[in-house]
Structure formats: structure tokens, C-alpha cells
């Protein structure tokens, strides 16, 4: 077993990740960490928007450490990295982290796989962490179990911007999430979010982590532009 404060990663969760394409991780981060991340992104979360989904990314850790020290501290926590390494079975690199907001009465994202964006070959995982209480009334996440077994799907969007896959027949809403709860899923698992019907922004943190031996499909090169996460630090 691998522990992060109140969360324990079990063999059953790892098996579920590969079999179903996702697993629930209740209490994945502490309320203290939730509050620290929200505080660092408060201005972004409450800024005026056009009602659409928005994100504030972290890609290069050193460049973000000054502006978002608590967020980078969370992403590079040795206990968290041990969880990542246990799931993918190898040292890991951070593909990206992003503070994700759906504005009040705003719209979420259509069904998609994250590997429809930059095509990466090798083991990767995604995380979606609730930074508010999240239900289907405020842009809750939907997942299509076992859709990662289909491989990378075609993008149906004809315009630049977000990718879109065909709507799966087995899509299900994720269970209500308390602040700090997470869903961990495969990079090719289909997912999307509904509209935020509340009067408050829906705040979440999403991240994508890659095995250090992953390669870009277009070039065959290793992810040398991404930061290696070291659990021993």
C-alpha cells in the first residue's frame, strides 16, 4: 500500500485503473492543500469570463514555483509521486497540471480523450481533484468505463480548440465529490463535464503524469521538455 495523509492506494485500485480505466480516490489531498491551491488561484477563479471552461496551466515547474509555490509543492510531493510511480510502474514526468474552472451557469467540456490532443505513446495517468463540493449540478465529471481499451479515437471537431469524441453508450456520472476527493483515470479514458448550474465557479485541479519513457507519437522523441518528478527529493 502507498499512503498520502488520509488516502491509501491499494492493489485493487491499480488493477481497477487498468481494467476499468479509472478509480475513485476519496480524501486524495487534505483540506489544507485544497485551501492553499484555491487561494493561489482566487483571482483567476473569480475573474469575469464568457461562461466557458477555463484553465490555468503549470507545465514547467521552475517557472511556476514563484507564482504558485503551494501548487507546485503539492505536485512534487514525494508521497504523491510514489502513487504515480506505483500506478505506471516507472519513474514519472509531469505532463501538466491545471487549475480548471467552470464559471457560474457556464458550460463544461464535450466527451474527449486527453490523448486526442498531443498524441503520446506509453503509460500515462490523469487526475481530477475536486476543490469544491462537486455534483452533477455544478459541472460534475462523467466517465466511460473501459473506453481506454479502444485506443486513441478520432477527433470529431472541425474547428480549432477542444477535441470531441463520439458520445459513448456507457457514460456514467461520477459520484459526488467532497473537496480533496479525486478520480484517477487513464489518458485515453473518455470523459466530459456537464454545465455548472450554480451561482459559484466550479473549481477543480487536473493533472497529467507520464512514465518517463513515454514518447511523442509524431516524432518518436522522449518527453525531454517535461520535468522529471523525483520521489526521493
Q: How would you describe this structure to a colleague?
A:
- With 233 residues, the protein is of the alpha+beta class.
- The chain is 20% helix and 27% strand.
- The chain has six helices and 14 strands.
- It has helices spanning 11-20, 31-40, 42-45, 61-65, 69-75, 78-88; strands at 2-4, 7-9, 22-25, 53-58, 92-102, 120-121, 124-130, 141-143, 172-173, 182-186, 191-193, 202-211, 215-216, 227-229.
- Strands 3, 4, 5, 7, 10, 12 and 14 form a seven-stranded antiparallel sheet that branches. A three-stranded antiparallel sheet has the order 9-8-11, with no helix packed on it.
- It is globular and about 45 Å long.
- 41% of the residues are buried.
What's the gist of this structure?
This protein has helices at 11-20, 31-40, 42-45, 61-65, 69-75, 78-88, and strands at 2-4, 7-9, 22-25, 53-58, 92-102, 120-121, 124-130, 141-143, 172-173, 182-186, 191-193, 202-211, 215-216, 227-229. The protein is α+β, with helices and mostly antiparallel strands and 233 residues long.
Task: Describe the SSE topology.
Layout: E1 2-4, E2 7-9, H1 11-20, E3 22-25, H2 31-40, H3 42-45, E4 53-58, H4 61-65, H5 69-75, H6 78-88, E5 92-102, E6 120-121, E7 124-130, E8 141-143, E9 172-173, E10 182-186, E11 191-193, E12 202-211, E13 215-216, E14 227-229
Antiparallel strand pairs: 1-2, 3-10, 4-5, 5-12, 5-14, 6-13, 7-10, 7-12, 8-9, 8-11
Helix pairs in contact: 2-5
